[in-house]
Amino acid sequence: MGNILYRKSYKIIGLVVCFLLLCTAFILSVSLGQTNISFRTTLEAFTQYDPNSTEHIIVTTSRLTRALIATVIGSSLAIAGALMQALTRNPLASPDLLGINAGGLFFIVLAITVFSVNSLTSYMWIAFLGAGIAGVLVFFLGSVGRDGLSPIKIILAGAAITALFASFTQGLLVIDEQSIQSILFWMAGSVSGRSLEMLFPVLPYVFGATLCAFFLGRSINVLLTGEDVAKGLGQRTMFLKIAMGVLVIILAGSSVAVAGAIGFVGLVVPHIVKGLVGPDYRWVIPYSALVGASLLLFADVVARFIIMPQEVPIGVMTAFIGAPFFVYIARKGLTKDD
């Protein structure tokens, strides 16, 4: 795949532009919504906060919280997708397509309906567990057979596990109809109605996983040259793969625990980024973090206005963007990472 920003200086400038784009998306997310609030009033909500002003309260609580959560979740899903595409060498790999999101969501639904769990911290660990089990199952099924792990087999395994956990989730809804309303909160995939109390428990893990991913860029580049070459250069490839898998589980599990099942961000963003900077993961990961956060913020802003006064779940908006992209990649017949 060719890249537009082929010089290091261009990539640095591009990184700055992406950061400014993220800032713009964040400002729009805080400023725009069903309640018409001017940019001046939005600014005053932070510089001259008035606790008696309804507009200031909306900006500093609902909208600011929503923007912060969208930023963290968008970044996490994009990085997880980039890591999965490198780990599996499959351009169709992403947390939602390989069953990781479905596994985390099913375990949360199971905890709510069967065990009546209502602790936000518990949701985080339950989502991690579900994401981890789903990931292990996909890699196990994708590795069975004479040829071992292959891009096609892992996609088929991911589709099977996704369908399995989705059917389990639907089965629980049929059994316990009284819990449907609380469960739809997670199934819809949305940053609306969430609170910072839901984000804080996962934030240290997301930050640590993101930081680790940044430092793995050079090692991932070596791994992508071929496992035999990487081992010849002294790389502990198995340790690196396990580390990448753990990071994906943390990032995807955290996203499900906070915002539910939001799809296609992890699929689309790495391809956009590679079109800009090429396959060098020293640049792919930081670019993915910024572009993923910006994409989810813009999607959330658009979702507020399509069917006003109602809102479209952000998972629907990302699917609207990502589904045609998925079809395009599948039709191109790509079976290995660029």
From TrEMBL:
Q: Which organism is it from?
A: Alkalihalobacillus alcalophilus ATCC 27647 = CGMCC 1.3604
Is Membrane included in the keywords of this UniProt record? yes
GO MF annotation: an example: transmembrane transporter activity
Q: Where in the cell is it found?
A: Cell membrane
**Lineage, broadest ranks:** Bacteria, Bacillati, Bacillota, Bacilli, Bacillales
Report the Gene3D superfamilies cross-referenced here. ABC transporter involved in vitamin B12 uptake, BtuC
Segments traversing the membrane:
12-32, 67-86, 98-117, 123-142, 154-175, 195-217, 238-264, 284-307, 314-331
Provide the coiled-coil residue spans. Answer: none
- Keywords, comma-separated and alphabetical: Cell membrane, Membrane, Transmembrane, Transmembrane helix, Transport
Q: Name one GO cellular component term.
A: plasma membrane
Protein name per UniProt? Cobalamin/Fe3+-siderophores transporter
Give the family per the record: Belongs to the binding-protein-dependent transport system permease family. FecCD subfamily.
Keyword Transmembrane helix appears in the UniProt entry? yes
